[in-house]
Amino acid sequence: MNPPHANRPRWDDHDDLPLSPLGDDAEAEVCVVGLGGTGLSCITEALALGARSVIGIDAVGIAAGAAGRNGGLLVSGTSEFHHDAVTALGRERTIAITERTVAEIDRIAREVPHAVRVTGSLRIAASGQELEDCERQRAQMVADGFQAESYSGPEGDGILLPTDAVCHPLLRCRAMAARALKRGATLHGATSARVIDSGTVRTDGGMIRARHVFVCVDGNLERLVPSVAAAVRTARLQMLATAPAPEVTFTRPVSTRDGYDYWQQLPDASIVLGGGRDVAAESEWTPKSTPTAAIQDYLTSVLRTKLGVRAEVTHRWAAVVSYSRTGLPVFRALGDGVYVMGAYSGTGNVVGALFGRGAAQLALTGRSDLLSPFLD
């Protein structure tokens, strides 16, 4: 099962941004725990709002978790399809969320244009029942003012969402981190947060005192912040990638089987494929981030039989993310300047960026229109 790059994401194709561990006590106006897309968006926004000093820490390094190990999809909305979200959350609230996520995709594309391609995305039906559901999604989105088109093409039948995009997630995060460093932020890798309390973050290397503390962690959030354990649950997501596969052409990312399987073809023609979590659903509710034979065998079968890819598999990897009980992300203001966010239920590339920016706005200005439709 193991290719040359076992449990190394396909995105890890360029030099890392090395960060030294915290070696002493420190003070800052802002401390961010977690240097993935959410944490780096929070840092970027805090600097833009004039924070005098910003420290960011991560247990490993830049986008070492799911932020650098996902499928690279930038999709609008929540983890639910638009029409299902309307049923669960109400139309007005769902429209507000979708509007913000569509705008955030556009903002991300402008922020890191070298790491983003605005391609649109396809939801392809795996059955007649799913095709009917695709039509319900399309009709609701159009009625609510969003772009969605019926689609029939070589991938199959379904719907096209023109405003969605794809990204190189690790390139995006490393670019954001490099800019933050240039703007004066202090970033530390190999620095685990052990205890988070009012105005303090205890690590093995020292204590950080900060006016505002943002916990921007997705997978295993409940371990770091036990007070959210009743609201979130960690799951493993698995992926593989291939050598260039000129025998197939996918101009847009594709999802199918109600979003359980998804893939995209990169500019060099290689394929990145993820999914199959429902194949062994109970075993995938786990904090472990190593690939398994059951899911990887399933992904290989999809690659060969459904996609028609003959190219060799070069990478197999996994990551953990958190799912919320409600389908909406978790955001908690714990008091004394501590904010906790996560559980994006697989939508962290876009929604996580919104939450990171919104949390910084809320703490430093007292309000955030970005967060309002997500919060009860």
What does this structure look like?
The structure is a single chain. The chain is an alpha/beta fold and 376 residues long. The protein has a domain at 5-69 and 169-231 and 326-374: FAD/NAD(P)-binding domain. The chain is 28% helix and 28% strand. The chain is built from eight helices and 20 strands. The protein has helices spanning 37-48, 82-89, 91-111, 128-143, 169-182, 221-224, 293-306, 348-365, and strands spanning 5-6, 26-33, 54-57, 73-74, 116-117, 121-124, 149-153, 156-161, 165-167, 186-188, 193-197, 200-203, 206-216, 232-242, 254-256, 261-265, 271-275, 313-324, 330-335, 338-342. The protein has a nine-stranded mixed sheet, sandwiched between helices. Strands 2, 3, 10, 11, 12, 13, 19 and 20 form an eight-stranded mixed sheet that branches.
